[in-house]
Protein 1
Amino acid sequence: MAQESFMDALDGCQLPAWETLPDFGLYMDQLLTFVERSVPKISGILGLTPAMINNYVKLGLIDRPAGKKYSRDALAQLLMIVLLKQSLSQESMKQLLHPPEDLCTEALYRDFRAAQKEIIRRYQSVPEVSRLTCALESATLSLAFRLM
């Protein structure tokens, strides 16, 4: 992948701002459509299905829908999951995505998004990023997380 298309792909992975997330309930098909449109550069590799979302709910990774409608909090949790599921176990995601009582999902999502933007900015400031560098950084950070 050329450096320019790599940078474009990174831009397409940025999560939408909290304010742009619907503040009304979404049915399953609307939830899937929103996620696919929100992260277009990775939606093709996500393979996100209704069964997966139902499993995330059963595992406590995503808040339960109310009357078959998913809340803004559940949508934010799902968006964070689609980025984290490539490198973290479900148990690790559960610990990270359910904030302590003194922190709401909105604040967690804003912090998550800000950290993601900073990481993307760092990669965009490097003239040439190799696959090896990405893989090594990913492996090192994954190991660091496990040691925590």
Note: Residues 3-147 form one domain.
Protein 2
Amino acid sequence: MAKIRVKKVKSAINRTKKQKLTLEALGLRKIGQVVEHDATPNILGMVKKVEHLVSVEEA
């Protein structure tokens, strides 16, 4: 299964509760933090919801 790297590039301040919880569920807490996930439909949907706060690349 393909892997993706998700990096938090913007703050969650002044964002909705759902977006903050989505970032937390992805494992992103601090700006600049990078996590790796399998490219499942669930993860890709979560990334899509916060794409303005993160950057994504294939691993």
Note: The chain has one domain: 3-52.
Protein 3
Amino acid sequence: MIPESRLIQSELTIRGLTLPDDVLLARKSLLRWVALSLGMVSPNESRTLLLDILDVLFEFSAKNESPTTRDILARLEQKTKKGPNPKAVYYHLQKLKDNGIISRKKGRYVLGDGEESSLKEIFRKTYLRKTENAFSRIGKALDKLENGYKKV
């Protein structure tokens, strides 16, 4: 194991993708495009459970509803015609929570911190907060380096 790996708190990937007109025509295409742009899925990713979970979370959010895990599982079962593996759903929900995309309050999930309802603002604030935290530490290290070079 690389010793530095223990220092990593999170990773942030943002991809600059073109947004072709055909992507705008289907919700599934838009979900995949957003997830790919935000580094939530890898290029050529064939698994779709995360996209299905995002679809369900966005659907509940549009109705101003905060689902429980059971609500999410039930809706996924309706959408996919075959119930997903609950452990895989829990895994993805935990990853989304760890990355600040969702939070859990009183057993119910909300996007972001629950203060904002616009998807655009939820993701913007989440990613800006993460980059500001990272650049705060990066800035401290760069200042230390800069001061060290001036002494040489």
Note: The mean pLDDT is 92.
Protein 4
Amino acid sequence: MDTQFLSTEAKKLVALPKGILAIDESMPTCNKRFENLGIPTTEENRRKYRELLITAPGIEESISGMILFDETIRQSTATGIPFTEIFKQKGMSIGIKVDSGTKDIPNHDGEKFTEGLEGLNNRLVEYKNMGASFAKWRAVINIDMEKGLPSNECLDINSKSLSQYAQIAQENNIVPIVEPEVIMDGSHTIEDSYTVTSKTLSNLFKTLKEQNIFIPGLILKTSMVISGNTCPVQATTEQIAEMTVKCLKENVPSDIGGIVFLSGGQTEQQACDNLRMMHKMNPELPWALSFSYGRAIQYPALKAWAANMEDVATAQNILVENARNNANANLGK
């Protein structure tokens, strides 16, 4: 394990004001978004769309790297240039989603665990040879206060798989992004969200330390502490910023490589505003705090492209502007 590389690459990925763009939607998820906008769901259209994102002029000014899906890392531009080469030309890092999705935990109604450890080492060796320097693994944590979710068993199972993945990634000199997403679906309050997020992160970092994971060479991708989407009382931007930063300070080691947020069902504006408020209220933080948004940056560009698939430039301009807005949010602007 090259700890110097891991810590340097992690810092590069979250060097403010830049953030990470997640374009790692699985084929079913990408196809569903296409269907909703009337885009034919073909491999070629997925390739064209990913080319639009990766080749957007100036995207590298706000984005340090992109998380890709297995299909995407193997694709090329219409003129035959591998996407991996475009990343090198732009000075952006290549990331890869390596989990294989979630399954129900037996006898745990509403709780999930993440698969993908089998054969992971061989896949990471291949991705490393293709130029990947970081990877991502997502766990799903549902909140249901009446049912007592999440259970301790759910948190333990997912913390262990995140730690095993992180260990294999670091052994291959790939920076692991660990993503324990606390889902915002539900009627829970922001206080409930705080309690569950705190418990999730505490459990995770306890397990990571037990497995001797190199913390400075690791990035946490986390959800914000936020009200459930059907909660009658929605927290303000200031409350979200205050409680999220408090939760992170109490549960995340100060020597971590960095922290990035997922948008997790927020609108594009909400995700940007909440991030901006955190930096505005906390000009000095113990770790780099940035974004790793997918839909919150992509979706307006995807809608523009769906309206006129020949007009790539307009969609790219929208994409770059959204990325820039979030980079400015990292500066409290």
Note: The two ends are 38 Å apart (CA to CA).
